[in-house]
Design a protein that fits this description.
Blueprint (H helix, E strand, L loop, with lengths): L1 H16 L5 H16 L4 H85 L4 H72 L1
Length: 204
């Protein structure tokens, strides 16, 4: 029964290891130590083999724990990347809304400019009107209207400039986030390459 139990433990270790960091080699060493322990001739030799088996089991358990920690970290990283992706999507949607709003404001500014040109043309016609007093009143009213429209235009132009700056900052942020994601992917690939190299060294 003891041998069967040990075989089950070894089989479980091999299944857990997969392509772990050299646990297959440690399991092979554990099997050899177990065979030597079974065939040990003296109590001292048996105790030595027993201590070796305990040490190898401890290394395998440590490696398994480290693998689980890496797995949990990768899960958290994936959740973080998903959050960043959603934030980027929301930012892009907000940018499209701001662009649409800016287009509306540009159309409004064009209408204001057209109205101003029409008012200028009308003012020129009024200047030739024979009733000077009435013409002056009309010109004064038109002047106020032009001043009001000028303020509106300035406000619209200021808002447009602000929207352009905000959109530029947003695009820069999106670019930086994309660069960060690319750098993280490159770093992950470098770490995987380093792990592969370490595995190859362990097998040698």
């Amino acid at each position: 029964m003891g041998a069967v139990t040990d075989d089950e433990v070894i089989r479980k270790r091999l299944l857990i290891d997969g392509d772990g960091a050299g646990d297959d080699r440690r399991i092979n060493l554990l099997v050899k130590s177990f065979i030597k322990w079974c065939n040990s001739g003296s109590q001292e030799e048996g105790y030595t083999q027993y201590q070796r088996m305990l040490s190898t089991l401890s290394q395998c358990e440590f490696s398994m724990g480290k693998t689980l920690l890496v797995y949990d970290m990768n899960l958290r990283e994936m959740e973080n990347y998903e959050k960043i992706y959603k934030d980027i999507e929301n930012s892009i949607a907000a940018a499209h809304e701001k662009i649409a709003e800016c287009k509306k404001q540009i159309l409004q500014a064009k209408r204001i400019r057209k109205n101003r040109q029409e008012y200028d043309a009308l003012a020129k016609v009024i200047q030739h009107h024979p009733d000077r007093h009435e013409t002056l009143k009309q010109l004064e009213a038109l002047g106020k209207e032009l001043q009001h429209l000028s303020h509106i235009k300035e406000n619209v132009e200021d808002k447009l400039e602000l929207r352009r700056k905000q959109f530029h900052v947003l695009l820069s942020t999106i670019h930086e986030l994309q660069q960060t994601l690319e750098n993280d992917e490159k770093l992950s690939e470098a770490e995987e390459s380093s792990d592969t190299s370490m595995k190859a060294d362990d097998k040698q």
